């Protein structure tokens, strides 16, 4: 591979994880390139709906050398503000980035290091940092193929606003953060919404006078590492709690939506012969979400009692609505539904990386971003090390750690051999 450009580090992905990695590589004067198949940090502008806002307060935005410094640290940045925040980070980092370049294959070289094939040509590197996240391929179930062509179908990453959908009622499938917020967005726009509720937990926005995130920060939750979490690595598979930062922040209560006309069902399992079939688990799912909600608040109550912090009195959420009966089937033709928004997540796609670092589900096996294959590291995955690893709050700290380990390895490789005399 004579003449092939060689780098100490190649970073795959130009989102906040890749940019944070570049920041720390530059601090240590380590040569590198960032490859981004679209444009730097594009997902915030191209894969979020119009009313999108952060679900964590602005003070948690702490990219390296670029903390939030706006006028509302306890507020929640809206989409345009998030885009501006990230773009200013791009300008500050000024990374050596190749935008519009896809990495198509990475293989290990017999002599050490890696061969990288890209849409712009071949490169070699001592180290590979995978910073492309874990949300690659939108999940749309095969049952979608059986639905009538007259039903418009989009994934949550394609949703922008209610007006893009045809007139009529909307079925939202999934009640994680995206599903719950998109269902609310449609509901507030005056659309009749049918929501297939999943098994996602929820939490309060504010409790006893403060944002729940602020309480949990005081309690040290966001500093808990994955190896200290009761679920250990299993926490990486957890669904995020649904809540919103919209309009200054509030709870999302699916039961209240039901009192206002939203139709709730259990998990959507199939479509056959014109019938949508649902698992009869709506009541159990709502109860689980509320137990989590009250459980988090109870943990805050305990913290307040132990520390003596002054706060308003405690409370316990009481359901404002319960399903009168489980509904296992719905005839599509007579339902009024003309569109479906699939909000059931993504699957990872790391097929381009030829290295034995994945488990049976195709997910990276690592410890704080480092894999068992020397020179292959990951950044920006959920719970890579802490709750904030995939977010603005802690991705920079993770990147600093990974880069420090890279620097150590490069230093060892390049140290001159001592010769005994």
UniProtKB/TrEMBL annotation:
Keyword Cell division applies: no
Classification via Gene3D superfamilies: FAD/NAD(P)-binding domain (3.50.50.60)
Keywords, sorted A to Z: Oxidoreductase
Source taxon at top rank: Bacteria
InterPro entries: Auxin_biosynth/cation_transpt, CHP04046_FMN-dependent, FAD/NAD-bd_sf
KW Oxidoreductase (keyword) present: yes
Entry-linked NCBIfam families: MSMEG_0569_nitr (TIGR04046)
PANTHER family registered for this protein in UniProt: FLAVIN-BINDING MONOOXYGENASE-LIKE PROTEIN (AFU_ORTHOLOGUE AFUA_4G09220), FLAVIN-CONTAINING MONOOXYGENASE
Protein name stated in the entry: Flavoprotein involved in K+ transport
Annotated source species: Methylopila capsulata
């Amino acid at each position: 591979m004579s003449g092939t450009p060689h780098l100490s580090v190649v970073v795959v992905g130009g989102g906040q994880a890749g940019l944070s990695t570049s920041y720390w590589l530059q601090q240590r004067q380590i040569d590198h390139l960032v490859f981004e198949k679209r444009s730097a940090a594009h997902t915030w502008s191209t894969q979020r709906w119009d009313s999108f806002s952060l679900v964590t307060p602005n003070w948690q935005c702490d990219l390296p050398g670029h903390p939030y410094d706006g006028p509302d640290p306890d507020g929640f940045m809206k989409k345009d503000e998030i885009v501006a925040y990230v773009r200013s980070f791009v300008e500050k980092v000024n990374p050596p980035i190749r935008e519009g370049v896809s990495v198509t294959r990475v293989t290990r070289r017999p002599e050490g290091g890696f061969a990288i094939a890209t849409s712009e040509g071949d490169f070699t590197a001592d180290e590979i940092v995978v910073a492309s996240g874990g949300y690659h391929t939108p999940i749309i179930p095969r049952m979608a193929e059986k639905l009538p062509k007259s039903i418009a179908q989009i994934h949550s990453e394609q949703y922008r606003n209610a007006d893009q959908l045809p007139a009529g009622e909307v079925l939202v499938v999934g009640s994680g953060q995206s599903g719950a917020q998109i269902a609310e967005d449609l509901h507030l726009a005056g659309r009749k919404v049918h929501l297939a509720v999943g098994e996602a937990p929820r939490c309060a926005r504010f409790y006893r006078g403060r944002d729940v995130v602020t309480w949990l920060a005081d309690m040290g939750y966001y500093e808990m590492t994955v190896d200290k979490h009761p679920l250990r690595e299993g926490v990486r598979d957890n669904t995020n709690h649904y809540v919103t930062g919209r309009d200054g922040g509030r709870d999302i209560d699916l039961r209240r939506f039901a009192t206002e006309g939203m139709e709730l069902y259990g998990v959507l399992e199939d479509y056959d012969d014109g019938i949508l079939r649902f698992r009869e688990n709506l009541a159990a799912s709502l109860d689980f979400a509320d137990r989590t909600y009250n459980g988090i608040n109870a943990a805050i109550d305990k913290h307040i009692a132990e520390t003596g912090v002054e706060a308003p009195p405690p409370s316990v959420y009481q359901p404002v609505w319960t399903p009168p009966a489980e509904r296992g089937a719905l005839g599509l033709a007579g339902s009024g539904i003309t569109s479906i928004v699939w909000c059931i997540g993504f699957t990872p796609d790391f097929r381009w990386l030829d290295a034995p670092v994945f488990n049976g589900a195709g997910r990276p096996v690592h410890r704080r971003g480092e894999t068992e294959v020397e020179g292959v590291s990951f950044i920006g995955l959920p719970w890579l090390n802490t709750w904030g690893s995939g977010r603005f709050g802690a991705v920079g700290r993770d990147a600093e750690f990974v880069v420090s380990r890279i620097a150590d390895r490069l230093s060892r490789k390049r140290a001159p051999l001592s010769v005994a005399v």
